[in-house]
Amino acid sequence: MSRPLLYESHMHTPLCRHATGLPGEYAAHAQRRGLRGIIVTCHSPMPDGFSASVRMRPEQFDEYLSLIAAAADEWRGRVEVLAGLESDYFPGMERWLEKLHQRAPFHYILGSVHPQIKEYTSRHFHGDWPEFHRQYYRDLAAAAETGLFDSLAHPDIVKNQGAECWDVNALLPDICRALDRIAATGVAMELNTSGRLKTVPEMNPAPAIIREIHRRRIPMTIGADAHEPARVADHYEEALTLLRECGFATVSVFLRRQRREIPIQDALDSLRG
User: Fold this and answer.
1) Which of 203, 205, 219, 253 has a beta carbon 3.0–4.6 Å from 156's, enabling a disulfide?
2) Is residue 199 part of a domain?
3) DSSP string spanning the chain?
4) Which domain covers residue 100, as residue numbers?
5) Cis before residue 115, ω within 30 degrees of 0?
6) Would 138 be classed as within a structural domain?
7) Residuewise pLDDT in 10s, the chain (273 residues)
8) Based on the structure, what is the number of domains in the chain?
9) What's the CATH number where 47 sits?
């Protein structure tokens, strides 16, 4: 059996108010799946009640770090439990995130544009879904250009908003312009397996976008976006196979905010369960 190599690099805690299970329970499932570890990436706290129903409160940030530290102690020597964060990009919040990211020795910072939250839709949706989709990609590129993030999470999640109007082929020129900007930053992008559970039931992003990411030599990470322990490493085999079919030979992980590459075949061989 191959040695553990991969991490669950997108997972949550009950502090975000829409996930269940403590980090130690996620670590237990990671061990069953043959992972080396988990990187806890709960939704970042934000100021002034921004999107408050789906994230920890600012005063809970120390509690978040304590949850991770307790699980790290519990699983030491068996499964690595590391601190990360899924931080929302929203114009005007950059300084808040910069300070937040300095408050702990994070291993991995995911940058997310969440088009489903009311603050985003109220600013950008004016009855034209295709334009809303294009705006999302402009914001995704702007997120990369801040330099705040290691990888961009679920980079076509917007297709679930106005899904009846989503046309990846029609949007591809706009998507490619965004990818050109992202490629220039060196920021990675995530293949998120939880897309299979959403309105448009396919991974985020779709194969057509993954191929364009590969053409620009943008590295890719994978994550299950687990909101319950049983979803740790969910469909990782399928995700790795899809990356390989789209031209990738390696998948990336971040430790101490530094990117490392793992050959896809080695990653596949390391999984179990």
Assistant:
1) 205
2) yes
3) -PPP--EE-SB--GGGSS--S-HHHHHHHHHHTT-SEEEE-PBPP-STTTTGGGS--GGGHHHHHHHHHHHHHHTTTTSEEEEEEEEE--TT-HHHHHHHHTSS--SEEEEE--TTSHHHHHHH-SS-HHHHHHHHHHHHHHHHHTT--SEESSTTGGGGTTGGG--HHHHHHHHHHHHHHHHHHT-EEEEEGGGGGSSS-S-BS-HHHHHHHHHTT--EEEE--BSSGGGTTTTHHHHHHHHHHTT-SEEEEEETTEEEEEEHHHHHHH---
4) 7-113+149-155+190-209+219-270
5) no
6) no
7) 589 999 999 999 999 999 999 999 999 999 999 999 999 999 999 999 999 999 999 999 999 999 999 999 999 999 999 999 999 999 999 999 999 999 999 999 999 999 999 999 999 999 999 999 999 999 999 999 999 999 999 999 999 999 999 999 999 999 999 999 999 999 999 999 999 999 999 999 999 999 999 999 999 999 999 999 999 999 999 999 999 999 999 999 999 999 999 999 999 999 998
8) 1
9) 3.20.20.140
Tokens 């997310």 correspond to what residue? 112
